[in-house]
Please model this.
Amino acid sequence: MTKSDILPPDLQELLVIIGERLNSGQSVEAQLPSAVAGISSLPAATISQSAPAIATAAKLYHRRPEPAWLGRLLRPHLTDKQQLLKLPDLRYLFLFHCDGRMREAALKRTTGGLQSSFLFAAVAIRLNDWAEPVRAAAFACAKRCFPLTSAEVIANAVTSLLLHQDSWGRWGVEREAMETTLARPDVAEQLANILCEAQTGPTSRIFRLVLKNGSIDPHLPRLAASAQQPWVRAMAVKVIADGRAGWQVGWEWKWIDKSMGKRVQEPKFNFRDLQFAFDKAAVVRAAASDGSAIVRRAALAAVIQHWRGSREAEELASTLIADPSPSVRERAAFILSRKGEPATPRDAVGIQPSQ
Model:
């Protein structure tokens, strides 16, 4: 796929016209509204491919060709900066300018709530811009605009941005803008809706990254019961049963045999305690009768880890000893094989009949 293929043909055509006019110093006032509307409607998930495609099509170059002296005499020659000062909505196009000074100026002129998920993503990626002044301008812009942007717009953009943010190596304090935004309860609710309803895609990966922020905690029981993807339900069950959330922060080496110099890389996780107390027993019981073996397996794994040896654990395992899934039967048999083992203090308070 080429850069131009990512853009709709009509938008591509319009941006080419705008680029020619910018190069020749002519006003783009007539073409700008349609271009901004077209850019705003692009999917936020395409931001990394669309950004360079927009810059190329609209010729948002660092340098413009110098106009001939005769051309300057016959008509005014507008610079990009002059056009930006005259046409406020040009800021949305110049967010993709190859000249960092223009990106910085566009961000400084951006105010109010962002009207589309693509525009939100366009500001968000500038938090990791290679130019420090642009990052600073993006941080200030985010603090102005993100609180005024609707939760639906933010959530639709964040589901794709989260997958790439761990590779953003330039941002520092700018990260606070995204963390503060994700902490909004209305944003967390919208994210939970998306995670519940998504039937395809990397939803479980997104869920793992969303778990960094405690604002998602009130929605964990709903995700455990109602998420369309079984892996999401299973993960929510585990998080509730564990009483803590974990997410991958990188990789670390683990020795297999030091004498032979054999080692492997394993995921490295960070953890946080949940901010709410849940009826863990009810969640695990419901998961044990889930239609997916993945979720039933997660329920028994929680019992093995936290409540093995309790009477109710044995009863739960008994109902699944003849489960169609071999992995579920295996865990149920393991629990029953440990029948009569004394429960640990944590086991004793972990799962009790509901009052």
In short: The first strand starts at residue 244 and ends at 257. Residues 345-355 have pLDDT under 50 and may be disordered. The two ends are 59 Å apart (CA to CA).
